[in-house]
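Reminder to self: keep the SMILES exactly as supplied, no canonicalising. Ligand is guanosine-5'-triphosphate.
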Amino acid sequence: MLVGDSGVGKTCLLVRFKDGAFLAGSFISTVGIDFRNKVLNVDGVKVKLQIWDTAGQERFRSVTHAYYRDAHALLLLYDVTNKSSFDNIQAWLTEIHEYSQKDVVIMLLGNKVDSTHERVVKMEDGERLAKEYGVPFMETSGKSGLNVDLAFIAIAKELKHRSMKLPNEPKFKLHDYVKKEVKGSGCCKS
Ligand SMILES: Nc1nc2c(ncn2[C@@H]2O[C@H](COP(=O)(O)OP(=O)(O)OP(=O)(O)O)[C@@H](O)[C@H]2O)c(=O)[nH]1
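Structure tokens returned for the bound complex:
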């Protein structure tokens, strides 16, 4: 499930992952909730991801709360060009902990890193927050595609591992995998 403030780029991230395209043009806010499926091959196993795209607007909050408890993983987004979307992450995490399953996989994404000149949230700030909450972190761009597939593949690997771990298979380490695979935005860090 994709969560975060309205306008952080949840729908665009999902469309980028699903169709490999960027939704250019005017911003059409999600109404309530929507979903798309994508089948991935994860280490030789077919994994069907059902990805729920939630509305970030406050007025839909009661609708989206109802979906948290069935979510296996949450991608929590903020927009690196919008400080308040970053400041609201703590409130989102409180909400997540209130409504979702205890073992839900959470990943923090700092999105829109293609907008280098408008950036107001440093990568280190995202890293620090993620560390504080013990969740993996990466910076993404639905526009350029940076780290978009990686975010979903990492989640798919974790979920596949949790649901069908073989007896002698070593534990999949999501944090380590993300650290190893993540790509930088290729720009200044501030
Ligand atoms: N520069 C840039 N703009 C983006 C990116 N992703 C989304 N946008 C723009 O940000 C605006 C909001 O994108 P959406 O994907 O609709 O945002 P959302 O989080 O789904 O918003 P809600 O549905 O209201 O919760 C649109 O105008 C997009 O074109 C990105 O990676 N880079």
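Points to follow up:
The CA atoms of residues 136 and 148 lie 14 Å apart.
Residues 6-12, 23, 27, 29-30, 55-57, 111-112, 114-115, 141-143 surround guanosine-5'-triphosphate (CB under 6 Å).
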